[in-house]
Specification:
Structural class: alpha/beta
Strand content: 5-15%
Number of helices: 21
CATH topology of one domain: Anaerobic Ribonucleotide-triphosphate Reductase Large Chain
Helix content: 25-40%
CATH class of one domain: Alpha Beta
């Protein structure tokens, strides 16, 4: 049994909402054998801050200075200006001490390798991490297995084992297991992959994305009439996909093998899937269920800081952190709403204070790498060699509310670009200062930071934008860079429990205008928007738009604005109304590629029965 002694807070206790306390008590605070919390929120932040402070001693900090760093890191979190990813809050200074949220594991094409990865997945998820995979290397359904003389059941069958593993360890894990499954558009089993999650009861612990190359997108944009060619990863043999194959049951033997450079006679072209057909299939599946997402894999690898170590083939479960096989990353987010100063009509960001917070947060996250006990040896090696961190933001929509900037406006997008550029610049400078103090990350000499940028940094990747689901509840702010789902909504968390969330900035402004009461709250909860409530002044309605009040184009433009100034990637959902057409989804995917996004995930309202955020 864990021997636990609460850590004395070195500062004021945090000011937390009831919803924040509910989440902390359920998931984060240390409990005794009877399930009773034996830690307060202040003690939690003190525990995590002390771990980060003690890591300073590795770099020559004296014992007397640890107390100073303890206070600084405590205030950073207890003020709710910054919070690290959930595993750090849950596990710091506790047995196991697995503190990173993001992992990518390889799946190589042998039974031994596949089940070794399944074991590693279980260890990581048991400790609270999320895992991403690429299924590209697995031979297609029906392909030969030389050792047995039989044929393989294909990637989807092994994918099911990964999903079942997550289900099996769910009960004893710190939090719900999450995965990302990816497959390249040129894999022979791509049709099976695209349709696998159209059954909403299948693979419920997986997000999925199809990887698309620049060459493939160029074929699509040109006309899309090229025949779609797939390739067996085991043999390199190229094939065409006949239109008459059974999507759920076809094997490699049902495909048309291309001999040398030959193609089928021109009269037979219409018998095979073309590039545009596959694109329409992707769009249709996403329109129906929200999956698959699309990842522009060449765009991701153009930003790969260590290409000499290999290509990036997958991301973490929410897509914001592309990683090499066996890499891990620790995330943290700054609550931008805490840096708005001034009075109504004359508000701005406290840029100097934001810069100080960025610098301290980068140092905190770098310390976390040294504290983390990674469950997989190869991950320990690579995490310490590349030292990737992911500093991002939350509370962005709240910040726009306070500044009076509509999310769906050029001014809003330009502000998003400016704030991420500022954070990225200061985070890189902070990482450079750490490199001067502690040395650059060990693989720096063979990275693009040396060969292309000539800049010493402590961390191979420094910034990303995560979804910040539960930590934004703790911080009482909007999630990541998303618009608010609604000024009033119900969040389903904690194994089916429901929480009423009222945006505090909207409530404050509505109260000041003499509008806020329970009747209004219930009306917004039913509608999910204030846009058709005539008694609310148009100026307020213009600013407080809900996720579904904002057109997909503005969602994508905001994502692209942040991606422009981000080392890794951006987690963002592009919301569509229920009546959105296939054409609208098609245009959104193309726009995301055009504007330089690394991927895109869309969700059409009511396309699933169970949604994490809902209305009355």
């Amino acid at each position: 049994m864990e021997q636990f002694s609460p850590t004395s807070p070195p500062g004021k206790p945090p000011a937390l909402t009831e919803n924040a306390l509910t989440v902390l008590k359920s998931r984060y605070l240390v409990k005794d054998q009877q399930g009773k919390c034996i830690e307060t929120p202040a003690e939690l932040f003190a525990r995590v801050a002390l771990a980060a402070a003690q890591a300073e001693t590795k770099y020559g900090t004296g014992a007397g200075e640890v107390n100073t760093w303890h206070s600084r890191y405590y205030e950073l979190m207890a003020s709710l200006r910054f919070l690290p990813n959930s595993p750090a809050l849950m596990n710091a200074n506790r047995p196991g001490s697995m503190l990173s949220a993001c992992f990518v594991l390889p799946i190589d094409d042998s039974i031994e390798d596949i089940f070794e990865t399944i074991k590693q997945t279980a260890l990581i998820q048991k400790a609270g991490g999320g895992t991403g995979f690429s299924f590209d290397k697995l031979r297609p359904t029906g392909d030969r297995v030389a050792s047995s003389g039989g044929t393989t059941s294909g990637p989807i069958s092994f994918w099911k084992v990964f999903s079942q593993t997550t289900d099996a360890i769910q009960q004893g894990a710190f939090r719900r297991g999450a995965n990302m499954g990816m497959m390249g558009v040129e894999h022979p089993d791509i049709l099976k992959f695209l349709h696998a999650k159209q059954d909403l009861k299948a693979f419920t612990n997986f997000n999925i994305s199809v990887k698309i190359t620049d060459d493939w997108m160029k074929q699509l944009i040109k006309s899309g009439q090229s025949l779609h060619v797939v390739k067996n990863p085991r043999t390199g043999q190229r094939y065409l996909l006949p239109r008459n194959i059974d999507i759920g049951g076809y094997t490699i033997n049902d495909l048309y093998a291309i001999k040398g450079k030959s193609k089928p006679p021109s009269g037979q072209h219409r018998q095979f899937y073309k590039v545009v057909d596959i694109w329409k299939m992707i769009v249709s599946c996403a329109h129906k269920t929200g999956e698959p997402g699309v990842v522009f894999i060449d765009r991701i690898n153009r930003d790969n800081p260590t290409p000499s170590l290999g290509m990036i083939e997958a991301t973490n479960p929410c897509g914001e952190q592309p990683l090499l096989a066996f890499e891990a990353c620790t995330l943290g987010s700054i609550n931008l709403a805490k840096f708005v100063t001034g009075t109504e009509g004359q508000r701005d960001i406290d840029w100097p204070e934001l810069a100080k917070t960025v610098k301290l947060a980068v140092r905190f996250l770098d310390n976390i790498i040294d504290l983390c006990s990674y469950p997989v040896i190869d991950t320990t090696r690579l995490a310490l060699a590349n030292r990737k961190i992911g500093l991002g933001i939350m509370g962005f929509a709240d910040c726009l509310f306070m500044l009076g900037n509509p999310y769906d406006s050029q001014k809003g997008v330009e502000f998003g670009s400016a704030v991420m550029e500022f954070i990225n610049k200061n985070a890189r400078n902070a990482s450079s200062e750490l490199a001067d103090l502690r040395g650059p990350f060990p693989n720096w000499s063979q990275s693009t930071w040396r060969t292309e940028r000539n800049k010493r940094v402590r961390n191979a990747s420094i910034t990303c934008v995560a979804p910040t689901g539960t930590i934004s509840i703790i911080a009482d702010c909007s999630c990541g860079i998303e618009p608010v789902f609604s000024p009033v909504f119900v969040r389903q968390v904690l194994n089916g429990a429901k929480m009423l969330e009222v945006n505090p900035i909207f409530r404050q402004i509505a109260q000041k205008a003499g509008l806020y009461n329970q009747a209004l709250e219930k009306r917004i909860l039913r509608a999910g928007s204030i846009q058709k409530i005539a008694k609310i002044p148009s100026g307020i309605r213009k600013i407080f738009k809900s996720a579904y009040d904002i057109s997909p184009n503005w969602h994508i433009r905001m994502q692209a604005a942040f991606q422009q100034h981000c080392d890794a990637a951006v987690s963002k959902t592009i919301n569509f109304p229920t009546k959105a057409t296939l054409s609208a989804v098609d245009k959104a995917y193309r726009l995301a590629y055009e504007l330089g996004c690394k991927g895109i995930t869309i969700y059409r309202k009511n396309s699933r029965a169970q949604e994490p955020m809902s209305l009355d």
